[in-house]
Design brief:
Elements lengths: L5 E4 L7 H10 L7 E6 L4 H12 L2 E10 L2 E9 L3
Parallel strand pairs: 1-2
Antiparallel strand pairs: 2-4, 3-4
Length: about 80
Amino acid sequence: MIQADVKLDTLGYFCPMPIIMTLKKIKELTVGQVLEVVSDDEGIKKDMPAWCDTTGHQMVGLEEEQANSGMIYKAFVKKTK
């Protein structure tokens, strides 16, 4: 299990909103902190690593959980700059 410093709930939002919300939230973090982005949009599995590659932040991991309403994805991003 990956430990996060800050959690961002994007449940109910679909691409590109989770990425836009991540961009805004990660600006509030200090370098080295890990942001957990919780989403029910399966697109985050491809979008978040691509966004990390583009922006230079580190994709620490991705976890998937089955919930009553469907799959929940947790993307962990470490602020690097």
